[in-house]
Amino acid sequence: MATGSGAAAAAADAEEKESGSRMITLTSNEGKAFVVTEASARQSATIRSMVDDGGCVDKGFPLPNVDSKTLARVIQYCDEHGNKEAHTVDERAALAKFDKDFIAELDADKAFLYDVTMAANYLHIQGLFALTTQCIADTIKGKTPEEIRTAFGIEYDLTAQDEEEIKEEDTHA
Amino acid sequence: MRRRKKMTTSPAAAAAVDLISELSDDVLLHILSFLPAASDVARTTVLSRRWRHLWSAAPCLRFAVEPAPPPSTSSRRADTGSRLVAAVDSVLARRAIDGADVETLKISFVFSSSPNDGGGGRSAFDGDWHDHADDIESEHVAAWLRFAERHVTGDFRLDVPTLPRQRRQAELPSSARFKSMRLWLAYAELTVPTAAAAAADRAFAALTDVRLSTVKVDDVNGRRLCDLFSSPACCPRLRRLTLEDIVGLTELRLRLDAAHAATLETLKLLGLPDVKAVEVDAPGLRELAITGVSLDEMAAPPMISAPRLRRLTFESDETCRGSGLMVLDGARMEIDILSHGFSGVADNRDLAWFLQHCAAADRLDVGLLVPLGEVTKLKGHITYVL
């Protein structure tokens, strides 16, 4: 940044704050630091409110609930949505394509998909959370209970009493 | 994120580890809220103990016909419809017993043409399109409305495309907890509470968004409807109001008292064929859309006072004559007017009159939509237009 009078520097600072070009450090539960743009970090409502409340931006934000692998993937999403413009039709299409590829990759690795979902929930990244939960919902949609159990590896552990209840409900339905 | 690794016993699923069940209730409920049909949600109750009672707390219940199957498969469509009616009834009945409130209830038998079907979708109403909704009776509608009044704490939407010709009736549901209400009621005769009764019950205390479509009102209920939306005691938070395809509404008078918080920001009047008088006084109004309202047939010029208006959309098949549209402070206003003027047949005098009365406007963008054959006729005049 060019040196200048105090006022000019303050104005430049304000402008920098405005444009979200400050860098913010996010630390995973394994202690690994990730440096991201403020615009990217602001995709998370949790971090956004900490920044806006005058949180210690310089010290960075430790995220005790998120591991490095998950955080790296979450940041990939935030960078794409926070750092890029989405004004023109082409830009929006590019972003939609990114989302599509992003979720397709996660869908192939369900365990990782849940980790990213939990992180998106914890960090309040609305778009990402909607994307991952929608993906999980799509897997449930239109399937029989047995198909759902197979798809997610859910163990059948209903007791005879539960089964009785279910039968009861079905006759009322 | 730590998790318990739990292997299933089935050898076929040996590689699958049940991780989804370890997501928190909040997340699982959110996932359930994405399921398009509540029957999908109900099916999850038999998955395992973890899922057994989860759904009874599901915040959103959505029942909707899937995107329209082709009309040729009409037996399948009818089948889909009657199964959906049964699913709605059974899920709501169980939910009523459980007593857990519902944040969002959406019941839609209208095929949406696009996912973001904000207002249109009326094209889906051509011809013999409603065989799938033949099983819906006024009694179903009454029961669903009653359930919503008692259990819905946020957004309520009911779209019913057809009802049997006899006994097409419905009561406007009221709940101090509704945040938004969207009703499409197949031209049922609507009964509306008086403003005084509604205010005493705090009937619409939290309501911010209303879209009322395809209903029929008589003079008494039409007047009550206007009173309801005009009264700050009834609808203290109303911000967006759309009245669409309402038959029998002859006088539209919305007088929002400036002394009270004038919360109404968006007003859309779409297809009100019987309206003969319009009087809107909305001090806080920012956006106004009028489509399919015959202003020229009115006994007295429509009076609309909206000093904070920023965007106006006006579309009419007829040119509007002598309307007392009063728009002040429109410096940054966007106006979208579709005016049908054919050369030699009609002129756009009224449109010009209107624009001349937007005294605060300092910029005008004009878009021309010209039928292909007319282009040559226009050529000689284009410089004049510009």
How would you explain this protein's 3D organization?
- The complex is a heterodimer of chains A (173) and B (386).
- Chain A is mainly α.
- Chain A is 64% helix and 7% strand.
- Chain A has a three-stranded mixed sheet.
- Chain B has 386 residues and is an alpha/beta fold.
- The radius of gyration of chain B is 25 Å and the shape is globular.
- In chain B, helix 4 (74-98) packs parallel to helix 5 (138-151).
- Chain B folds into two domains: 60-249, no CATH class; 252-259 and 273-363, no CATH class.
- The longest helix of chain B is centred in the first third of the chain and has 25 residues, at 74-98.
- In chain B, strand 6 (209-216), helix 7 (219-230) and strand 7 (240-247) form a beta-alpha-beta unit.
- At the A-B interface, helix 6, helix 7, helix 8 and helix 9 of A face helix 1, helix 3 and helix 4 of B.
- Chain B: Residues 23-63 form the F-box domain.
- Chain B: Pfam families: F-box.
- Chain B: This is F-box domain-containing protein.
- Chain A: Pathway: Protein modification; protein ubiquitination.
Task: Please give the structural blueprint.
The complex is a heterodimer of chains A (173) and B (386).
Chain A: H1 6-19, E1 23-27, E2 33-37, H2 38-41, H3 45-52, E3 61-62, H4 68-83, H5 89-107, H6 110-123, H7 126-140, H8 145-152, H9 160-172
Helix pairs in contact in A: 4-6, 5-7, 6-7
Chain B: H1 25-34, H2 38-43, H3 49-52, E1 60-64, H4 74-98, E2 102-108, H5 138-151, E3 152-160, E4 169-171, E5 180-191, H6 195-200, E6 209-216, H7 219-230, E7 240-247, E8 251-255, E9 266-270, E10 277-281, E11 287-291, E12 303-305, E13 311-316, E14 324-326, E15 334-339, H8 349-356, H9 375-379, H10 382-385
